[in-house]
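Risk register update: the risk of archive-format incompatibility is retired. Evidence:
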Amino acid sequence: MKVLITGATGLVGKKLVQKLTSNGIAVNYLTHSKKSIPETALIKAFYWNLEKETIDKEAILNVDAIIHLAGATVSKRWTPRYQKEILNSRVNGIKLLIKTLQKNPNHQVKHFISASGISIYPTSLSQQYNEFSTSVGHGFLAEVVQKWEQAVNELDVLNIKTAKIRTGLVLDPHQGAFPIMYKTVKNYVGANFGNGKQIYSWIHIDDLVGVYQYVLQNKLEGVYNAVASNPVSANVFLNTLAKASDTKIWLPNIPSIFLNLGLGQMSSLLLDSQYVLNDKIKATGFVFKHENLEASFIDIIKKIE
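Archived output:
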């Protein structure tokens, strides 16, 4: 099997490349710089440029599936210009891949797996959401995910199976929000956000990579929530992190009004509440290895220290 991956140097991409190649799966990846990942017998780099809408057509040669992970980080100030970059980096990448496939009708791609986000669900302290929930949230991130998934739907005309992996808060030792959270808690300057009642649906990076590999190898299609089975409140999340770090949270919560003033729309990353269920992926036979929050924190912290 050969897979084409976008975003191969990102939080999920790096580990997924390692996981797939260790299992004998060849990986082509799209990049602006071939220095991103060393090439090997199983790893090959190909150029693409979203602004110029160019891509090396050889990237899809003998490729069985595409995994689309590329997207500008949301953990950066949301200026109007950067909001466009967040959206375009996700949607335009899919559109360029579709054009490339259409121009090369002899391709053998049969499966397209795209990253997505649980931000598509409305923020709620009481409602639980599964993949069959039809309610859609409001705000910038919900809009991004909707347009992201709509772009994936355009692959239907090519008769390619599609899967969308709606991802929660990722626990990774080196990238994403966790290293920052851990550093603040470890230095006794950690504090909860708002009233702390908002629900965080989280997932260990190893389980997330496992979900992608499982969906790929089992040729699954449709929407899947990539979250652990026990979402928790922000208060529980941070206090559990403090316990795993052998520290305590002693600073008062940061009021929502200050977060809104300081971060604007970006405060939704900290204040939105989504209790998301993972029953669908588990029903297919996937087994999560990291379901306990404290044990997951301890495992991640060991990899930091």
